[in-house]
């Protein structure tokens, strides 16, 4: 058997095992229409496979679900079964799962129901809430492949390691303590270093709102699953945009906290130990308040006692109150820095429209808008790229070599020279200087605001395009600067690409700011993008998770949702 | 002119310039007795050069000084002049200063006095408090050599850099905002990577309590100056023990906070950008409460707004209250983990006695003592050593090469192979796993305590010996594990080596735990060590500065001071 045959056989068997884990009763019998006939498989399309009760439960957000499950209105088993069913359908539609453990989930939910029946109180704030996990988290009973064929039947690539199928990541333990029900793990691109989700095991994870397009990456399986309401909330990871890109592409919410806020302990990773820019764990969900629920809940577990890299920062209600007072102030005195583009790549028309819409809505509510003109972003981008390439691609190659599988074309990592200690130190210094210059700029905006405070948050694109056409994810600069600077960022769904509203606009070739700018400009096709979600980032300072989550909730409730409803009736013009 | 002649000329000129900055009226006229005739130059010896008023001021701790200066009882100018005078004497006795700027200090103090006269209130909580700084901090008007001859007349080795003599480190700006008066910068060993303080510019910094011995390193100038009361408080840095070793050797207090607590922004460093183990900034002073004053004061400046690596952690009074409640509880319910040795090197008799004394005193006050048996310390030590050698010594060599000066024999860095990116990542993973195993061990001690809480703090040696005989600083394991684990540690003076009490104890050669253990055992000489300070560490979890400073204050007041007085009359036996 050749290497090629061997890894393909392993991959196919694993792919089949995932499908086989779906109970027969939940398999879609009729053929699924091709994307050309069924662009959007959310909403009514997926609802046809579900009972009204299942639809009610699965279309509730995490906050609403826990409002029912923690007081005994909904049983954990009923909710879990509804999400298992919907997740099973979701996987068949867009290919978003890596591990399925519905039986264990329903059994765990049963234990929660017994607990509630006996004690008349929930196990914790997430009692009975199904939570999905990107396939980097270790959960007992199932494996973690992270998309690598060579990781099948191993622990992070090591055969015979006793931790396989037994070890649990710190966050997983905490979620169990909180009463959450774990039921599936979601797809990732091999190596995690890609803006689309595809691997040699399950293939490509498609965008549920527009099946011609990508679900984004690297937490693309989470993004697609949650958009299909196959999960109310889940956890991804983000080192260059891997939570935010799929959140934006799938029309959901995602938080990239600063490093050291949520526990990464015991989570599989690419280039583990690279600590120039740390990958972070963060929640993804269908509402901003759900992100807050999950973040707050995890922090009640004092993760700093179990993860040496988490700072002792419990949820700070005082920060929450401060923001609420600003919101409730009359006149509401918030100031937003708006960055329509980063001087490197001009976003495509749907993203430009989304940015203008958000700006207009915020202005209408009386908020001050400041034109955000930070220090050059090309430095942030160069630092991120050099970081991702710092080991010359050796780590990802070693994991690919375990099976002999080829890399994916979407992978952002290529072979290069590895940096040595002095070069890494120099990169760390450049990164710190870059962070310092942005910090100083942020402080300096107090001169521009009527409040006298520096800007409260920045609003900017998540990517230069809506959910991307496969193969056209070319530019990570809109998300990776947040990682370089270690800021807090929440993605908020803003609109959908529209072939009617988002006409291509010719540009003078002399106006292109970069090669990527030119490429991304010419990539734009209003027909294929039609219906693709667009999400924008709301960015706070480092470790300002409380503030930025509260602002996200406010913007969702008072700015985006009324507008999104209006949009549907197309009364708002442009 | 040969290279050798050139650097020696530059070094001598700089050495002379430092001496020349001492006003003629403060020069010691008569010859200073050799160490054989004058072992201890603190106390009455140095007092002979000062007025009673100067003695009163300079022998007050930072808290007492600010209690006078912030209400107008003492003028900033008077206090500053007293400390300038005493620092000038101190330098002549033990060679502890790199930069002297008394005129600027007295002028700045004058401005503070004017402010107070005009506004009837202090500029800030450190109004009129002289604060010394290790010669890594940039202060306008003077240079920073960090002991490198090649840095003379440059900015961090770069000739013609406009920041020379103008740029100020973030902490320096914050100290000015708080009302502190900066007046001198203190000596360091070239490269900073040494447990003794010596360089080719000023020579050797001697221990004021025993002039045969070292002042420790790398913040040895701070340690010696503060021990001589030439400064009430100062700031050092610590990557392997550089605050704690000189604090212990000089009989003063020193805080090594966790990384990200106090601002390092804009401070010169060795191997800048090495971020496997981060060097940290911390205060050194003559009392635990002074460390608290300085830490708390700096945190009022919101350093996280100006230093991208500082976490948003203001001083947490709630943590302070929690500890105070434990202390005030009846019975007082604190539990200390005591580690008499680390299974690698058995401390010499004075340190063993100090540890037993502290343990006994704590037991007598009703505290529970748990035998601290953590995961192996040799792993922590290996991680620290590999970190310090990670660039193969290239950075320090490059700075030595600027002038052609030779390295010092005390330097812990040697030439080796530089690590590459994957090796550094692997080292970071080992470090994280090491931190995790210690965290789990710490949590597990809840099973050993009557309180049901994990151990409140650890007590262990700072070094295997009292202030060391020059050339015999062989082992950093007692301090560097704190850096590897990123814990919080305060050094508390415990006792003095005594030729009468600390007799050498023969050991079976089979009992030696390591080569260093054997060497350090045979190094011990009761005659030369007689009078050398011994300090122990009080260690808290990561970022528990509030807790550990409060405990240090408690231990100083109720455990150590009564005992230290008793010791003087030798009534306590052993």
From TrEMBL, chains A, B:
Query: Which ranges carry the Amidase domain?
Result: 78-549
The organism's place on the tree of life at top rank: Eukaryota
Q: Report if keyword Chaperone is assigned.
A: no
Tell me the InterPro entries matching this sequence: Amidase_CS, Amidase_dom, AS_sf
Catalytic residues (UniProt): 134 (charge relay system), 218 (charge relay system), 242 (acyl-ester intermediate)
Give the residues annotated as coiled coil: none
Q: Give the reaction(s) catalysed.
A: a monocarboxylic acid amide + H2O = a monocarboxylate + NH4(+)
State a single Gene Ontology molecular function: amidase activity
What are the protein's UniProt keywords? Hydrolase
Transmembrane recorded as keyword: no
List positions binding substrate: 192, 218, 239-242
Pfam families in UniProt: Amidase
Instruction: Quote the EC number.
Output: 3.5.1.4
Q: Which family does it belong to?
A: Belongs to the amidase family.
Name the chain's protein: amidase
